[in-house]
Here is the input.
Amino acid sequence: MIDLVLILLGEKSYAEERISRASLVPESSFIAKPAASWLDDFLVWLSPEAFGCCRKFTNGSYCPPDDQPPCCSPDGGSCGLGGVCKDCTTCFRHSDLVNDRPSTEQFREKLPWFLNALPSADCAKGGHGAYTSSVDLNGYESGVIRASEFRTYHTPLNRQGDYVNALRAAREFSSRISDSLKMQIFPYSVFYIFFEQYLDIWRIALTNIAIALGAIFIVCLVITSSLWISAIIVLVLVMIVVDLMGVMAILGIQLNAVSVVNLIMSIGIAVEFCVHIANTFLVSNGNRDQRMKEALSTIGASVFRYITFRCGAEFDGSSRNNYCLEITLELTTSVCRALNLYFSIP
Here is the structure.
């Protein structure tokens, strides 16, 4: 059997060394201090010098420190060496250990004691509370610890960018450790679940916008049977999205899940009116100038009035959260420019 203690010590020392080195450059790693290790505290708790920590009764069961029940009465009675714990001895003598390290069997036997030991004045190294969830004991009887954790701290994070950069740095650091140790290591903190979306938000936004524009182009091509009209409609939609993102930047609106949904919705809202104007242009009679004038004077005016009415009904007084006005103005100017571009094509 491979020595479980040696494996843990080797991997722990390497991981802790890397974390300690990363804490020396907190500006890039966002790690404030070296990791707190349950294995370090367990080995101290197990040491024969820590007489008040790892102890056993004469029958071999766990004996708590003298200031805890049953050694000390819970009602505030006397605590001392004359009670039920007077015969307790340390778990190991130096001669029982190999280079002051426990064997695999000793490690396997005493680790549950450590995780259930309450810290107190006589023994502050008890692992209950601090390390209760740090070790996965499923399958532990076979001599394998399938998962464990080391705890460290981020530097103070104030802005959204700090949280996102800290998450990104933690994942990159864990990826390097995983590649070195050939095992899965991942970071976790409470705020990660809230800022994880920002790691891929641009890729998600551009992918969804591209899918929406591609689907619109195909549908318009099938309905209008005109490659140029379909391309112009998509071009107008692209200009609307770009202008909306510019307004978001000016107003300080972050690109997040909500704003991405709004951008996709703006494409769906704008395409309806663009198609109306383009279809009217296609079915009108006359030369290009006459068809343009008819499209803008008939359906164009109706579309403009409808959007204005809709924005007036939905406007809530907050320009940061309402894109209707921007869609209205950009739709009108963009359609006119695009149709003029179409007219100039021979």
In short: The longest helix spans residues 257-283.
